């Protein structure tokens, strides 16, 4: 059985660009189903174990997938650690306010089977104000219209707890953490860092990182009230993540 040994996260942070970068390298096999989400029991895209492991049938050095749910879903990390103890992780983060708003936009654009948006709250601020109530509601968790954590715009952007969950199970050297701002402003350095982290020929990646799923600037789309709400929720967050990672990250976008 061929197993994945390279996993990508987190959602709405540039993971799709990284996925396409890796897909072009001759020593990396990426899952054709970008986010099989197999190790998230309540949001599996691929549900059959045989089908899942067939996605990685290859003799290439790395077999990768990019299920963003593994980063936010609490049950995934211990399962991955038990099954894939030698896995490596490429983690892309971004400004938490920008990520929260980008996720809301996606949930408003995407449609449910009933023809209405996945997110029924019509404004970003309304969704933020609903978050605590939704989080504490077993009924919402059981009946929400999509992946539960995709409605937790702020809570799913608390990277420190998510990253710490993995660092309690894997050693720090299994992770390469970067930000979307770094992908955009320093692509050559990021490609070199990935090559060194994976011990691969840098030339296999090409010269640039593909730009996918580009979204408009977020700052002028967020009301002062929403900024204030997120400032409270995200206080000290980036500093805590910097400390976990061991270097100051670029949180500018």
TrEMBL record:
UniProt-recorded Gene Ontology molecular function terms: sulfotransferase activity
InterPro entries, sorted: NST/OST, P-loop_NTPase, Sulfotransferase_dom
Record's keyword annotation contains Membrane: no
Alphabetical keyword list: Glycoprotein, Transferase
Domain Sulfotransferase residues, every copy: 6-201
Keyword Glycoprotein: yes
Domain of life: Bacteria
PANTHER family listed in its UniProt record: BIFUNCTIONAL HEPARAN SULFATE N-DEACETYLASE_N-SULFOTRANSFERASE, HEPARAN SULFATE SULFOTRANSFERASE
Protein name, per record: Sulfotransferase domain-containing protein
Species of origin: Aquipseudomonas alcaligenes
């Amino acid at each position: 059985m061929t197993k994945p040994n390279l996993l990508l996260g987190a959602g709405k942070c540039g993971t799709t660009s990284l996925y396409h970068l890796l897909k072009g390298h001759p020593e990396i096999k990426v899952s054709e189903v970008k986010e099989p989400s197999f190790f998230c029991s309540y949001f599996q895209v691929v549900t059959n174990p045989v089908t899942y492991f067939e996605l990685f049938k290859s003799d290439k050095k790395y077999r990768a997938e990019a299920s963003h749910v593994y980063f936010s879903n609490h049950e995934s990390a211990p399962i991955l650690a038990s099954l894939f103890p030698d896995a490596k992780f490429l983690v892309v983060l971004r400004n938490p306010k920008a990520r929260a708003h980008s996720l809301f936009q996606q949930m408003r654009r995407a449609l449910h089977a009933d023809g209405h948006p996945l997110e029924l709250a019509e404004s970003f601020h309304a969704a933020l104000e609903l978050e605590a109530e939704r989080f504490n509601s077993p009924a919402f968790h059981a009946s929400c219209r999509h992946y539960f954590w995709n409605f937790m715009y702020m809570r799913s952007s608390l990277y420190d707890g998510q990253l710490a969950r993995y660092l309690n199970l894997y050693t720090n050297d299994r992770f390469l953490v970067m930000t979307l701002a770094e992908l955009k402003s320093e692509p050559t350095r990021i490609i070199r860092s990935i090559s060194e982290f994976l011990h691969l020929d840098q030339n296999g990646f090409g010269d640039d990182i593909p730009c996918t799923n580009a979204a408009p600037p977020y700052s002028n789309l967020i009301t002062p009230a929403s900024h204030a709400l997120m400032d409270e929720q995200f206080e000290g967050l980036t500093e805590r993540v910097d400390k976990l990672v061991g270097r100051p990250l670029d949180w500018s976008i």
